[in-house]
Structure formats: structure tokens, C-alpha cells
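Whiteboard transcription, Tuesday session. T.W. wrote the C-alpha cells on the left side:
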């Protein structure tokens, strides 16, 4: 899957060629899949929607502190605040919540001390 024609990752930014949008990777809180679209949530409350699959973004962000926690969610571990045991979801910056799959819950439990 190629993203060179869509976006360039440079100097800690995602630079979207045709939309003339530049997003600092550290400002991304969460990505959410919606069929062939991806919602990108930022720390300042802004949200962008791109007509690309979440797998494309997962490949772009693999060298940063992002973790795929569900088939529809990728989170920035730097924005992780805690775990809500009632809803079995992760709590992130800006009061965002991301569902956690059962399989990945056990994998992340070993990595993150917030899941108890």
C-alpha cells in the first residue's frame, strides 16, 4: 500500500499533498476507522476525515508511539490517560474513548500498567 502520493511523513508532521494540510504527529490523539474513511482526532479538539483506510495510517505511523487497539482504533500512547473498566475502553486526551478488543487487551496489559 503506497501513501507517497497521498501524504508525506517528515520532521514529525503528516503533510497531506492535495489538501494542503499539515498535522503534527504529536498532536494526533486517536484515529478511528469508518469503512474506507479514517477520522483523525487532534489534541486541540479538531477532527479531520480522510478517504483512506486506517491501515494506510497504521503503516505511516508505525515508527511512532501509536498502537492498534481494535480493528477500528489506533491511539497515540502519549495521550493515554487511563482505562475505564465499565466500558472496557481506554480514556484519552479531550475526553475521547477508544474501544479495546479482547485479544489486544491482554497484549496491552503486559505493556501498559494502566490496564488492571
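and on the right, the sequence the group agreed on:
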Amino acid at each position: 500500500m503506497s501513501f507517497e502520493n497521498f501524504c508525506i511523513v517528515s520532521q514529525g508532521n503528516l503533510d497531506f499533498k492535495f489538501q494542503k494540510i499539515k498535522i503534527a504527529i504529536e498532536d494526533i490523539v486517536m484515529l478511528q476507522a469508518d469503512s474506507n474513511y479514517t477520522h483523525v482526532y487532534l489534541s486541540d479538539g479538531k477532527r479531520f476525515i480522510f478517504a483512506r483506510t486506517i491501515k494506510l495510517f497504521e503503516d505511516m505511523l508505525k515508527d511512532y508511539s501509536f498502537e492498534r487497539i481494535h480493528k477500528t482504533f489506533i491511539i497515540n500512547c502519549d495521550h493515554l490517560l487511563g482505562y475505564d473498566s465499565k466500558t472496557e475502553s481506554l480514556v484519552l486526551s479531550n475526553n475521547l474513548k477508544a474501544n479495546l478488543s479482547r485479544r489486544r487487551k491482554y497484549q496491552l496489559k503486559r505493556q501498559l500498567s494502566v490496564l488492571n
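Someone added at the bottom: The chain has a mean pLDDT of 87.
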